[in-house]
Amino acid sequence: MSDAPSTLPEAVVRDLRRALRGALLLPDDPAYARTRRVWNAAIDRRPAAIAVCADAEDVAHALRVTSDHGLPVTVRGGGHNVAGRAVADGVLMVDLAGLRGVSVNPAVAVASVQGGALWHDVDVATARHGLATTGGLVSSTGVGGFTLGGGTGWLMRRHGLAIDNLVAANVVLADGRLVRCDADEHADLFWGLRGGAGGFGAVTSFDFRLHPLRQVLAGVVIRPPAEAATAIRLFGDFAADAPDAFCGMLVLAHAPPLPFLDAAWHGRPVVITALCWAGDLAAGERAIEPLRAFGAPLADHVGPMPYLQWQHLQDGGAPLGRCQYWKTASFAGLTDALVGRLADAATALPTPQSELHLQHLGGAVGRGPPDQTSFAQRQTAFFVNMIGVTPWPEELPALRERTRAMYRRLASEPLPRQLPNFCDGDDGDAALVVGDAIGERLAALRRRYDPSARFAVR
């Protein structure tokens, strides 16, 4: 229980409670402490109150009240953003966690997804019909924030980013008005929602295009750190010309206690190549062979599996409640110097829980029309995420410094733009990392749809 009273005026509390179907949590409410928490335990902020919304009408009511009283607000979907943009000190948090419904129309291959849903909810619902769309690599990731930042995932090179599969959205604006936007209606807002990192309103539902998919060829190949440079170079060469059905990620980490890995390697630095082939399985076996055949792998655990299973296999590496600090950089290619610095990082991670992810774009992502969405990285070849992690809050200051030092070593030649979904709090406004032209257009949209700047954290 918090000993700090709410800073909301009594009139605001009264107006919120008057029509709210859900609950209004003040700091002395027993559920407040739990509800204000987000996935990243490094975020320790205390909103003035939390409006736990039962439906879209609750969201509209909460935003009308804050607009009437001239108050700032934040919106929480899945609460998975590393910068904790869902919560701010001293303002009202509109919580969409109760809006997790997913409705699938297999006849038109579209899923309608409520704004508080997690990718677990979407993947389970669509798998029943043998369908899927590009979603997060961790099933507890919220659909809303992931999509608004672009949405990279295992199916992106075949079917595009999450935003490329978004066909419509329902949005509650800062003044409480509900609008529906798509390519024809509120097309400017629809453009901003697809990659602009939010800040225009509370999205209460998303409509996604779905694709037939039941099984993938997927898994991991684990190698000793001595093979890091070779693995990185071959991964880069392969990714440059890979078929659209392939999506991969190279992970530098301390080995988790996987049952198929010799226990002598548990907790030691390793290089993990994660592979996903979303196409003909026999063709996939032949295609990915170069990534499996070289050197002396410690483990090769790749095979056919349901896509739904693959979507949940990364969950163990991203549990709720650990302190996180991330940095990210994008690259046009992997130079010899960058390969060397990445290989050196295999044995120099900030903590045993930290990881470095090397991912590639291309395929359908690169072919997406650059002017139809606010996603700024269509032509990026690779991006690197430095995932600093510690379970101990007292280690957080040192973790930040070590992760920043790693970023300085690696990012001497990055592209000037960053992926909003992987930016931490000290990277600033998530919409501004997309470049000047897109950033200026996003700022103009915000002035139109949120003229009083009610949304406090962006």
Features of this protein?
Vanillyl-alcohol Oxidase, Chain A, domain 3, 5-stranded antiparallel beta sheet, Uridine Diphospho-n-acetylenolpyruvylglucosamine Reductase, domain 2, 7-stranded antiparallel beta sheet, 458 residues
What is the gist of this entry?
With 458 residues, the chain is an alpha+beta fold. It has helices spanning 10-19, 32-35, 56-68, 119-127, 143-148, 156-159, 187-193, 228-240, 281-287, 307-312, 336-345, 364-367, 396-410, 436-449; strands at residues 23-25, 49-52, 73-76, 92-95, 102-105, 110-114, 131-132, 166-172, 178-181, 202-209, 211-212, 215-223, 246-254, 269-277, 299-306, 323-331, 355-360, 382-390.
Please write the CATH class name of the largest domain.
Alpha Beta
Terminal CA distance:
28 Å
Radius of gyration: 22 Å
The percentage of residues in β strands lies in 15-25%
**How many strand units?**
18
CATH topology of the largest domain: Vanillyl-alcohol Oxidase, Chain A, domain 3
The side-by-side strand order for the widest beta sheet comes to 15-12-14-13-17-18-16
